[in-house]
Design goal:
single chain; alpha/beta; Glutaredoxin; 5-stranded mixed sheet
């Protein structure tokens, strides 16, 4: 199943090494409703700040899809179905994205 991997508009260096079935988007506030809230596929959203140390740890994990600040929210059907706050191991992101994709 396809899903979206989305970073906020302040994230210019993301995008390399994303898995083929992932669409990486850098969103402005104007795009959020269309690309996340009204998306037909689950969307993983990474809210972060460049100055945030834990955010810099999380971003490569999310980029490689291995899948307060940092906060990563998974949206499905326009609703937040999961939220991860803080830097966690790659397998935590994998498990939570898989659950959102499978609908469990």
């Amino acid at each position: 199943m396809k899903h979206k991997l989305i970073f906020s508009e302040c994230c210019p260096n993301h995008g390399e090494n994303i898995l083929a079935n992932t669409e990486l988007l850098h969103l402005s506030r104007a795009d959020f409703e269309r690309e996340v809230l009204k998306s037909e596929v689950p969307a993983v959203v990474d809210f972060y700040a460049d100055w945030c140390g834990p955010c810099r740890v999380v971003s490569p994990v999310i980029e490689s899809q291995v899948m307060s600040i940092p906060t990563v929210m998974i949206f499905k059907g326009g609703n937040v179905v999961d939220t991860v706050v803080g830097a966690v191991p790659a397998q935590v992101y994998r498990r939570r994205i898989d659950v959102a994709l499978d609908g469990r």
